[in-house]
């Protein structure tokens, strides 16, 4: 009997030097460097460049890359017009998917598929994703779109474009850490989808549009929004233990808990947990953190032995919320970070490209014949 790997679990289709995950021990590294070190010592700009080139950059290389990002933040007026005329209430990921696809129409280099061309396009997309997402958010709220500033960091500039005021250094750094933690995560559904599209030698914008479509699904990108819904449903810390106990007794799914890969704590969740506590207390939202703390304790006590622990989505929503980001935009923020990993993986795979063409075990009829429509019942 043929073994079928449902969800492609355990199937190896390529090699990568970008990201390593050991789910049983809660290890995540980029270029062999632990995610904790990236979060503590690096920046989203540096990790993005390291992923694109497969090595740590020199100071000069990083400075040049940072200057390229700052110089490419602005988006064409045609795209701004499109964003401003999108229907109100549209799903932010639908808006992002459409905007990125349209951006490709405006790029004269869009159809070039060499690794060098893909890298140049990647730099522009990494720079422009934050501008697009902030513009969509403000347009949907009936606010004026704010132009990017070249004197702010990538993270700080996004918060400025979103909120209309310059963030504090602490806020900018916190958001930067959140982007670092989400920049890449191996062969997840959206990265695989981008590579599958790339393997046909399709253009970079089609690859990233495909990835956005995959990320949009609630089983991939929408979990942190669902965590916030759960917190609002719990209401206050005193109700948290009873709430989560009932969920566990009824064997209901708990958003932000469990992961296809990790059978121990997601190392990204450990980093975010510490920052979430500090920020929640400063912003007067300690209730959220206390609820999460109680839920985590009960979950670990009850089902931790089964390899089910909080993942990165468990705490990221509270961090974003405390920074003034609406929960509907948590998944676009995921894309804002993951654009680096998507682009890097596409470029890496394209250097030794092979068309992805999986197969399926046929389980249908084998001896059927055509029946005239007048004879069908």
From TrEMBL:
InterPro entries according to UniProt: 2-MeCitrate/Citrate_synth_II, Citrate_synth-like_lrg_a-sub, Citrate_synth-like_sm_a-sub, Citrate_synthase, Citrate_synthase_AS, Citrate_synthase_bac-typ, Citrate_synthase_sf
Gene3D superfamilies the record matches: Citrate Synthase, domain 1, Cytochrome P450-Terp, domain 2
Pfam families per the UniProt record, alphabetical: Citrate_synt (PF00285)
UniProt key word Transferase: yes
Keywords annotated in UniProt: Transferase, Tricarboxylic acid cycle
This protein's pathway: Carbohydrate metabolism; tricarboxylic acid cycle
Keyword Hydrolase included in the entry's annotation: no
CDD domains, per database record: citrate_synt_like_1
Catalytic reaction equation(s): oxaloacetate + acetyl-CoA + H2O = citrate + CoA + H(+)
Membership in a protein family: Belongs to the citrate synthase family.
NCBIfam families linked: cit_synth_II
This protein's name: Citrate synthase
Species in which this protein is naturally found: Deinococcus malanensis
């Amino acid at each position: 009997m043929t073994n079928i790997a449902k969800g492609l679990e355990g199937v190896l289709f390529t090699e990568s030097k970008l990201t390593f995950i050991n789910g049983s021990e809660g290890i995540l590294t980029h270029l062999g460097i632990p995610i904790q070190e990236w979060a503590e010592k690096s920046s989203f700009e540096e990790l993005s460049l390291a992923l694109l080139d497969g090595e740590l950059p020199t100071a000069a290389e990083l400075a040049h890359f940072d200057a390229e990002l700052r110089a490419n933040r602005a988006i064409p007026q045609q795209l701004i017009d499109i964003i401003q005329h999108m229907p109100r209430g549209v799903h932010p990921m639908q808006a992002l998917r459409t905007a990125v696809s349209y951006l490709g129409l405006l790029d004269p280099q869009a159809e070039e598929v060499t690794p060098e061309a893909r890298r140049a396009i990647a730099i522009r997309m990494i720079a422009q994703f934050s501008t697009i997402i902030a513009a969509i958010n403000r347009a949907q709220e009936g606010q004026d779109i704010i132009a990017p500033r070249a004197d702010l960091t990538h993270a700080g500039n996004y918060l400025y474009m979103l909120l209309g005021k310059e963030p504090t250094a602490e806020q900018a750094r916190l958001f930067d850490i959140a982007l670092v933690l989400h920049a890449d995560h191996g062969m997840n559904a959206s990265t695989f989808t981008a590579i599958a599209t790339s393997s046909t030698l399709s253009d970079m914008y089609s690859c990233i549009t495909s990835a956005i479509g995959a990320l949009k699904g609630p089983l991939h990108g929408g979990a942190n929004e669902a965590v916030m819904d759960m917190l609002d449903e719990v209401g206050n810390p005193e109700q948290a233990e009873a709430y989560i106990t009932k969920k566990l007794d009824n064997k209901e799914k708990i958003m932000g808990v469990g992961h296809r890969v990790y059978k121990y704590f997601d190392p990204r969740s450990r980093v975010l947990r510490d920052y979430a506590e500090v920020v929640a207390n400063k912003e007067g939202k300690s209730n959220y953190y206390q609820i999460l703390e109680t839920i985590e304790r009960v979950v670990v006590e009850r089902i931790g032995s089964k390899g089910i622990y909080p993942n990165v989505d468990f705490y990221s929503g509270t961090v974003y919320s405390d920074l003034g980001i609406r929960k509907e935009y948590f998944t676009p923020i995921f894309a804002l970070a993951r654009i680096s990993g998507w682009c890097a993986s596409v470029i890496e795979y394209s250097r030794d490209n092979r068309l992805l063409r999986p197969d399926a075990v046929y389980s249908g009829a084998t001896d059927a014949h055509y029946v005239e429509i007048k004879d069908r019942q």
